Amino acid sequence: MTSEFTTIKTLFENAPVGIILTTISGEVISMNDQMYKMFGYSSIDEMKRYVKNVAEDVYANPEDRESLLSSVKNNQTDKLFFIQGKTKDKNIIDCEVFVNKYTDKDTNEEYLIGIVEDVTKQKKTEELLRQSNERYKSIITVSNTGAWEYKNDSDYLWCSPEYFTMLGYNPNDFIKEGRVNLKEVWINLLHPEDREKADNTFADYLKKGSAGMYENYFRMKHINGSWIWIWSRGQTLRKPNGTLTDLTVGTHIDITSQKEAEKKLIDYKNNLEIMVQQRTNELELVNKELGITNKELSSKSDIIKKQNEKLTTTIHNLKETQLKLVQAEKMASLGILTAGVAHEINNPLNYVMGAFVGLNQYFEEYESSDKEKTDFLLNSLKIGVERISNIVVGLNQFSRSKESVDEDCDIHTIIDNCIRVLHNKIKNSVEVIKEFADEKIVIRGNVGKLHQVFVNIINNAIQAIKNKGSIHIRTMAAGHQLIVEISDDGIGISEKNIQKITDPFFTTKPPGEGTGLGLSISNIIVKDHKGAMEFKSEVGKGTKVILTLPLK
Hints:
The protein is of the alpha+beta class. About 50% of the residues lie in helices and about 25% in strands. The strands form 4 sheets. It has a 7-stranded antiparallel β-sheet with strand order 8-9-7-6-12-11-10, with helices on both faces. Strands 2-1-5-4-3 form a 5-stranded antiparallel β-sheet, sandwiched between helices. The chain has a 5-stranded mixed β-sheet with strand order 14-16-17-19-18, with helices on one face. GO terms for molecular function: phosphorelay sensor kinase activity.
């Protein structure tokens, strides 16, 4: 009995939670060190002096003890109670309490044994997590982005309401017994022409070990019968040790307007080519008429006058068409930025979602709080928010509508903004090396248009790199001139093609991937800034673009 008593006493005194013995009326009989320390006392004797009645001096809400006593009297001793305790300094702490009734065999008196754990930090962390979760759920709702989670092992699919509302459907129409059937929600809503490819793309991502990011483009049927273009992205979450979980999370974004803008741009180009050919034929006819004798020329002066008037009208129409194309090209560039913004917002959202899942798993596995791991996961949420803020700043700079060239333009900030919004194209295969001048470089110009120039040049460099490569960006001040060199180690441009690289509609890209207007418009913008743009290239080795602009 002595050995057993010693063992019990050791466990009692060294337990990591508070243990207290009281009478039914609330008088403190005994407790371990962890108990009095938890409530801010320096010793057992000090706590006994201050605590005359547990209900009044330990419970923040005395009625909680009455509820606890009622459960004990009804033999409900297997319950875990949540109460708020009151420390010596009158501070409130959150506690989880397990209580059991003990009867002394000799005196037949009844006592209560309580096991108490301080979960204040855990509750605060859970509240922060709840607030963060609500915040990001609001972001998803406002942006009309559909979120989804797929359990690989059970074919279980969870979808946010926006997954359906962006297609005009009522989410409740697709939920059966608390879950969603993948085939009914996704496969059957796909366009017949996209169904096999989209299904195989997702299956291949899972089959090949979920490497990197899952990305898919397809059309889904709207409730009104139209087809909505969807950009689907996702990632299979990993455990802290790097092994895969069975949960893949992702988003659906409506990119129909971007697809329509791309189609309109192609139509503009085709229509302009037809108009140019028609006017060329008319000019050839006019040239033949101009070859007649002076006598015939005099007799046909009215015809020539009408032709001149027609040509004037044609030139005016061509200029209007050119302006529309310039705006269309800008919208195409904005499409690139919009895709970049969507991607960069999704990434931190997935980052936050991953942190959220990690916290949930952690708190499910461990009842106590691990400060180091909790701080790391909460910091992940902070990083996601900061990245979203930086991307929005970059987009606002690019999309400014001011036309004048009298703004202060910080070249380094403009280049950094362009790199940031193209990050989703850069990060997987391209390394960007910046060699900026030590001093801040400011020129007079148009901030929005200079953003358009650098987005076009850097995007061309990215597209020229077929696998992995690098882009080197160097800035320097030489006299009264700013020089910016942007070089890549991509496929390069032939000597024949480099002579025509700034010609309108000239492109070496496949149909649908380029309009041939990006560098043409960039060249016009640079000239409007009283600058120049030079190209040097070698096939198989890469291309260098040299921009020269006057300093402020």
